[in-house]
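Private note to self, pasted from the team thread so I don't lose it. Backbone tokens:
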């Protein structure tokens, strides 16, 4: 199974050429703070999505220990991240259930 994103919403620090080389070709790339050939409506939607994700990442870093992994290597970082996201999802479910 080959998964590839249809749209990417990136921070202004990314260079489009580098993104195209590192990721499988998305249909649409939005980079914050730069002009794109797409519609204004789509650009606004992707900008709002990126801003929302930034807040969630900040929350995960502050509350769930994603500032740094305490496990070694890439595999350890993946395990650390998976446990943090599981804890976040369980907290979210507990809040919505009550």
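Design output:
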């Amino acid at each position: 199974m080959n998964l590839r994103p249809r749209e990417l919403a990136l921070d202004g620090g990314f260079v489009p050429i580098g993104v195209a080389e590192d990721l499988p070709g998305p249909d649409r790339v939005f980079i914050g703070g730069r002009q794109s050939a797409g519609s204004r409506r789509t650009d606004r939607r992707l900008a709002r999505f990126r801003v929302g994700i930034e807040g969630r990442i900040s929350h995960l870093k502050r509350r769930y220990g994603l500032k740094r992994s305490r496990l070694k290597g890439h595999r350890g970082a993946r395990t650390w991240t998976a446990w943090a996201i599981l804890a976040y999802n369980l907290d979210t479910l507990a809040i919505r259930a009550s």
